């Protein structure tokens, strides 16, 4: 087995090696038979198991801090929930179910009630399932699903990672992430970049390997090598966290604003602390997601101003509500669509619910004044120049001086010149643009290779927009995950990007790489990448140019 | 039966962390406290899952009930917590 090499999609650069820890697979549904011989004894197993699971979660909570601690404490409270225990015990008695099955069904009752309560509760349903699985595993004597407690530095191997799996993870002990499924925009990829550790996703054949001692992970090449016997622990960062001046520039002085993507006040604070020059993508959905009714202008104004506050005097691009059938909002009454990615979402939904957009624009304009940030707005899911012009009129009427649109639909990229003529700037959402160019669902691991931002066809489309932006003298930003990859960031600059917006954690690496690269090199890299026949060749060719 | 009406102060409503804190306090009381929205089904206040299914949002009024020795004290403790913005701490 040693020497076996697998390849997937590298989504976070760096090289690391170490012992493997496998994230346990989801549990099968516990069977309803055989009926327990002694129902009272069977029912009596539930409470101690629940208390044991809750105690373990509390121990993990005590060792964690911040958000992770709060998540674990809440999960612990759910595990020992008196109503869940009482209902499970009753199910054993009333229907002669095995304890594990009874817990499974009692939890399903709560999950259904939460689902019925409204859109934002989807995440909580996940928490209920997580607790259920821990209890069922305890009752059946199986390994609970999710990330086991790490005793030392490890390479995590999983089918895919969900936010709940990684909430309590100790970042200091994770050397690299490798998943069989997932894509460049999956939670795994985002987490790895936030932690600054290498990651390879869509690594087919990974889970079929058995008894792997160690792995060497190359997050740039997207390869994984199996090592037999003891494997040297090698951390990718190894103290070489690059420094940058805090001002994005190529080595020969071309300015490229380096901005943060934020979706909450916490993100904004983290972005400012990481030295972001501003915000290239402020996702406003957070303000709406937990609401059953549309938030008032006053409430939105306060919420936005909190996010804008750390960036007083600096540029912030606010994206208007990006909702639709895949991100339903209770008060917008969205219909179920067969293809939500192609349905009434983003700006299309705003045009159907103009009042919601107008009230949001009013709140954004007011919050901009409150905070002193230099605010622009942009619309998501724009397909035509006519849509762009419609949005620009509305935003300007609401008092927002600078207006742009996202380029994430291929039609908008192909009409870049006309779209740019209608607005002040564009911002490329490479994640959705890739999904639409390749007709490949972002959330499906089986098509992850197509969603790789190194695909030359995607980069050629970016080049088209870049050429139009350069010719018209309008700024072109990039706010997709592609901007967080230092080598790809250079390619994007070569293609005409004037700002790059990313997860705050990626800023130092991108800033340092750019500072060491001339605009000529960026343009050479861009030519090499767009001329390549496939994504692998594109990577290799760019590496050769950038050195 | 002793009853108390109180408006939810937590911005995120009674779910996640505020629900966990409330459930813990309710579980510490000597009597069982139930909570409901006007016209809704009561749930056990000590059950974090029950609290979440209640779907009580910021600004909603909820009705607390308890019975027996110590009911007033229990209602007082639970009501005070609901009237606090638990997510701010």
What does it look like?
- The complex is a heterodimer of chains A (547) and B (89).
- With 547 residues, chain A is α/β, with parallel strands linked by helices.
- Helix content of chain A is 45%, strand content 14%.
- Chain A has 22 helices and 16 strands.
- In chain A, the strands form two sheets. Chain A has an eight-stranded mixed sheet with strand order 1-8-7-3-4-5-6-2, with helices on one face. Chain A has an eight-stranded parallel beta barrel with strand order 9-10-11-12-13-14-15-16, surrounded by seven helices.
- In chain A, strand 12 (374-379), helix 14 (385-397) and strand 13 (402-407) form a beta-alpha-beta unit.
- The longest helix of chain A is centred in the first third of the chain and has 19 residues, at 99-117.
- The radius of gyration of chain A is 25 Å and the shape is globular.
- In chain B, 35% of the residues lie in helices and 20% in strands.
- Chain B has helices at residues 16-27, 48-54, 71-82, and strands at residues 3-7, 33-37, 43-44, 61-66.
- In chain B, strands 1-4-2-3 form a four-stranded antiparallel sheet, covered by helices on one side.
- The longest helix of chain B is centred in the first third of the chain and has 12 residues, at 16-27.
- The radius of gyration of chain B is 11 Å and the shape is globular.
- The interface between A and B is medium-sized, with 20 and 21 residues.
């Amino acid at each position: 087995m040693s020497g076996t090499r697998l390849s997937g999609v590298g989504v976070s650069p760096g090289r690391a090696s170490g012992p493997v820890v496998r994230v346990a697979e989801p549990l099968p549904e516990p069977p309803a038979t055989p009926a327990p011989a002694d129902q009272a004894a069977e029912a009596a197993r539930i409470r101690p198991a629940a208390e044991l699971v809750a105690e373990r979660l509390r121990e993990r909570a005590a060792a964690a801090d911040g958000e992770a601690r709060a998540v674990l404490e809440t999960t612990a409270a759910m595990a020992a929930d008196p109503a869940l225990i009482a209902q499970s015990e009753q199910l054993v008695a009333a229907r002669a179910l095995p304890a594990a099955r009874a817990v499974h069904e009692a939890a399903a009752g709560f999950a259904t009630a939460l689902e019925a309560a409204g859109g934002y509760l989807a995440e909580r349903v996940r928490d209920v399932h997580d607790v259920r699985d821990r209890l069922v595993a305890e009752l059946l004597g199986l390994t609970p699903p999710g990330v086991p407690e790490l005793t030392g530095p490890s390479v995590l191997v999983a089918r895919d990672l969900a936010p709940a799996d990684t909430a309590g993870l100790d970042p200091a002990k994770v050397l690299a992430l490798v998943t069989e499924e997932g894509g460049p925009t999956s939670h795994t990829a985002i987490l790895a970049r936030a932690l600054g550790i290498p990651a390879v996703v869509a690594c087919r054949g990974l889970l079929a390997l058995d008894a792997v001692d160690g792995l060497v992970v190359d997050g740039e090449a997207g390869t994984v090598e199996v090592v037999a016997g003891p494997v040297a622990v090698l951390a990718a960062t190894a103290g070489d966290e690059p420094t940058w001046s805090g001002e994005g520039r190529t080595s020969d002085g071309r300015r490229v604003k380096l901005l943060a993507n934020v979706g909450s006040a916490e993100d904004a604070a983290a972005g400012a602390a990481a030295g972001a020059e501003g915000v290239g993508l402020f996702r406003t959905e957070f303000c709406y997601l937990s609401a059953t009714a549309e938030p008032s202008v006053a409430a939105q104004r306060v919420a936005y101003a909190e996010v804008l506050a750390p960036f007083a005097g600096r540029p912030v691009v606010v994206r208007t509500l990006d909702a639709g059938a895949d991100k339903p909002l209770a008060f917008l009454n969205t219909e179920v669509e067969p293809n939500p990615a192609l349905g009434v979402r983003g700006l299309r939904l705003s045009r159907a619910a103009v009042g919601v957009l107008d009230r949001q624009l009013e709140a954004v304009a007011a919050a901009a004044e409150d905070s002193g940030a230099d605010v622009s707005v942009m619309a998501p899911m724009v397909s035509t120049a006519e849509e762009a012009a419609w949005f620009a009129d509305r935003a300007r009427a609401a008092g927002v001086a600078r207006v742009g649109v996202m380029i994430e639909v291929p039609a908008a990229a192909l009409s870049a010149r006309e779209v740019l003529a209608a607005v002040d700037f564009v911002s490329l959402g490479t994640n959705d643009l890739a999904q639409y160019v390749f007709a490949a669902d972002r959330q499906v691991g089986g098509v992850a290779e197509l969603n790789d931002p190194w695909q030359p066809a995607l980069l050629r489309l970016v080049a088209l927009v870049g050429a139009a932006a350069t010719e018209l003298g309008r700024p072109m930003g990039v706010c997709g995950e592609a901007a967080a990859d230092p080598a790809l960031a250079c390619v994007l600059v070569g293609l005409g990007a004037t700002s790059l917006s990313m997860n705050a954690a990626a800023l130092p690496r991108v800033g340092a790489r750019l500072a060491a690269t001339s605009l000529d090199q960026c343009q050479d890299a861009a030519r090499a990448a767009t001329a390549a026949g496939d994504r692998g060749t594109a990577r290799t060719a760019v590496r050769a140019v950038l050195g | 039966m002793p009853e108390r009406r109180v408006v939810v102060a937590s911005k995120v409503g009674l779910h996640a962390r505020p629900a966990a804190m409330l459930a813990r306090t309710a579980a510490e009381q000597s009597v069982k406290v139930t909570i409901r929205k006007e016209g809704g089904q009561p749930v056990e206040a000590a059950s974090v899952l029950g609290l979440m299914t209640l779907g009580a949002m910021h600004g909603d009024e909820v009705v607390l009930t308890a019975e027996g020795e110590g009911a007033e004290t229990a209602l007082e403790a639970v009501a005070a917590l609901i009237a606090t913005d638990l997510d701010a701490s």
